[in-house]
Amino acid sequence: MTKRNRVVRSREDLKEELRDQLDLLRVSCTAYDNGVEAAGKTIATILRVLLYSHKQSRGLLDQLGYRSGKFISSCEDFDESNIAPRPTILTMNVTKTAVKWEPRACTDPHCRESRKLPFTEWWSETIVLDGKRRRFTRMDLVMHVADTDGGAHVDPGLDDSYMDLTRGNSIGYKFGDQAIPFVGRPVLACMRQIAHEVIATLLENVPELGERVLPVVPPYTAPITDQAGEGQKIQVSFTLPDELKGMKNLRGTATLSPVKKIN
């Protein structure tokens, strides 16, 4: 194929593209919140367009100079001494019959509990630790979903650790004496929460984008820990990886306290 000349896009043209992408992102977030879980794959593809730069390919925010400011992280500080597997940007909603990981946007729609990081630190921050001590960053999960798992492409094979996380529940929590099943896909919930962080970041850094960067707030459903009464807790257990068994000062259980909505 003959290589054709390319015309450099104007800044205004790139801004118009950003407005389009944000419109698509908001629609996809709303679809996810309304129960279309697969919309998380579309969210991942849009996040890739906005954020990912490699060699001559540059993300849209990078092209516009919008990656230079601090990015909002809803991820809890990563405590190396806590070996509990966890997705740190999600909350856990426990009902009588199932457990579901949900985006923190449900309980903290305005990112009251958040930190601010330079883009490279935010993009490479660990947001999931699984039961085998494997770490996943925002970039890892966005690129897995967008490039291989149905966002923009479907690969015939998937990375083994990602496969274990998404198909094998490698987070591996159990609740009390009975194993309450997980429902939903935590990686897609992560896509929804990362989108929330990006929108909140642009609202703060590029307010002239107007209503396109107002938060898309998902519905809040009080978890059973709220319904059961203030202060009630649920004991959570998980299996330690073989290489950590027998080590001292490591926690193999966690306590789930009621999660309240922050207005």
Question: Concise description?
Answer:
The protein is α+β, with helices and mostly antiparallel strands. 33% of the residues lie in helices and 14% in strands. The protein contains 8 helices and 10 strands.
Structure description:
With 263 residues, the protein is α+β, with helices and mostly antiparallel strands. 33% of the residues lie in helices and 14% in strands. The strands form four sheets. A three-stranded antiparallel β-sheet has the order 2-6-7. Strands 8-9-10 form a three-stranded antiparallel β-sheet, with no helix packed on it. A hairpin with a 4-residue loop joins strand 3 (90-94) and strand 4 (99-103). The longest helix has 23 residues, at 11-33. The model is unreliable at 224-238 and 244-258 (pLDDT under 50).
Straight-line distance between termini:
56 Å
In sequence order, what are the helices and strands, one letter per element? HHHEEEEEHEEHHEHHEE
Share of β-strand residues: 5-15%
Radius of gyration, in angstroms, nearest whole number: 19 Å
Number of helices: 8
How are strands sequenced across the largest beta sheet?
2-6-7
Largest sheet: 3 strands, antiparallel
Secondary structural class: alpha+beta
Give the rounded overall mean pLDDT.
Answer: 82
